[in-house]
Design brief:
- This protein is an alpha+beta fold and 369 residues long.
- The chain is built from ten helices and 17 strands.
- It has a ten-stranded mixed beta sheet with strand order 1-17-16-7-8-6-11-10-2-3, with helices on both faces. A five-stranded mixed beta sheet has the order 5-15-14-13-12. It has a two-stranded antiparallel sheet with strand order 4-9.
- The chain has one domain (3-367).
- Helix 2 crosses helix 9.
- Helix content is 30%, strand content 27%.
- Its main location: nucleus.
């Protein structure tokens, strides 16, 4: 039997409800190397350096090294990192939820995103709820997208997706700029684009009464990582995005722009990333200019425009929904799902016992010693 959590309808004219929020603090990091192998350090962290303008974001598409999981990786690298940390410190990670940033972003934006649809799986172990993406549903969605017919003259979706990876390649270097030659910096334009290597940050945060540990990829950093993260100042990470320049230049498109900023804001807010750098392109993929957003200022900017969404409502909804999950999820495997256009999220038990592979055998063994 399923349970339904209805999505409230926020009023843009009434004061938004509030909920307490704990600022994200980094507790661990890990990388995937050029072969996408797990590495327990920050070796894949890149440094931001502005790209040359204009630049062709389609250049190098034919040689793109595109990593896409062919098997369900669950929460493996996240749990591997937490397990290593626990063994080193002797302190277990205590949280109501452990999950990837992508799952929290979908929850946090569901209230306002009219295209929102998702399927996740969850299990409870030692008083923590572990949430992952429904891999089979993701594969089905991917296959359906590939079968969709594009309008005449429209560019291929995989090429347009490549533009984001190309922008990242043009905007990062492997070492602090002061340690690099001009030739190395300029060689970014001919560098093979690959998404195999990744740097990931794991943070501890909270919504209302729920404590949450979130892992997610970080695109780059402005300065060196501190040896010990500050409790008051965010690390100078940056999120890199691309967007059609018309979304900023054409006032008739500003509502669509604000919805795009909703996802930009939520993704960065959840990991405590203070700055978002957006490459503005034309419809054919030419990078024309770069703009910067301070993550904390985006909700205020939206409120001064069309009030398409309210960050306080997003936080309160997330707090209430996590409280609902805590009170509802028991033993076994559960599905958390939402259909496009529905104003509700459905929770259903799939199995009475077990963890459905969501938690790795190594983590289970470690925690039950």
């Amino acid at each position: 039997m399923s349970q339904i959590f209805p999505l409230p309808t926020p009023s843009p004219h009434a004061p938004a409800p509030t909920a307490t929020i704990k600022r994200p603090i980094e507790i661990a990091i890990f990388s995937h190397d050029q072969n996408h192998a797990y590495v327990p350090n920050d070796s894949s962290l890149k440094y931001y350096h502005p790209p040359r303008l204009p630049s062709n974001l389609s250049a190098g598409f034919e040689t793109f090294r595109h990593h896409e999981d062919q098997t369900d990786q669950h929460l493996n690298s996240l749990l591997e990192t937490l397990m290593r940390k626990e063994k080193e410190t002797g302190v277990k990670t205590r949280a109501d939820f452990i999950t990837w940033r992508g799952m929290m972003t979908k929850i946090m934006t569901a209230l306002y995103d009219p295209y929102s649809a998702f399927s996740m799986k969850a299990t409870k172990f030692q008083d923590t709820i572990f949430i992952e993406e429904d891999f089979r549903a993701k594969q089905q969605d991917r296959a359906a997208q590939e079968k969709q017919r594009r309008p005449p003259g429209a560019l291929p979706l995989d090429l347009m997706s490549f533009w984001g990876y190309k922008f990242e390649t043009l905007s990062v270097v492997s070492r602090p700029v002061a340690q690099m030659s001009r030739e190395e910096i300029e060689s970014r334009e001919s560098e093979q684009v690959s998404n195999y290597a990744q740097f990931c940050s794991i943070v501890s945060t909270g919504f209302g009464s729920s404590s949450v540990v979130i892992g997610g990829e970080v695109d780059a950093i402005l300065t060196s990582r501190p040896a010990v993260p500050s409790a008051t100042e965010p690390i100078s990470y940056v999120e890199l995005k691309t967007m059609d320049s018309a979304l900023l230049d054409d006032p008739s498109k500003h509502r669509k722009t604000e919805l795009k900023l909703l996802n930009f804001w939520a993704q960065s807010f959840l990991l405590g990333i203070p700055k978002i750098i957006v490459g503005l392109r034309d419809p054919r993929g030419m990078l024309m200019r770069v703009v910067e957003f301070n993550t904390r200022n985006i909700p205020g900017e939206v409120q001064r425009m069309n009030r398409t969404w309210d960050g306080n409502w997003c936080i309160k909804f997330t707090s209430d929904f996590l409280a609902f999950l805590k009170s509802s999820i028991g033993e076994g495997v559960w599905q958390i799902s939402k259909q496009k256009g529905e104003r509700a999220i459905r929770l259903e038990r799939l199995a009475e016992e077990g963890t459905g592979g969501i938690i790795s055998p190594e983590f289970l063994e470690w925690r039950t010693q």
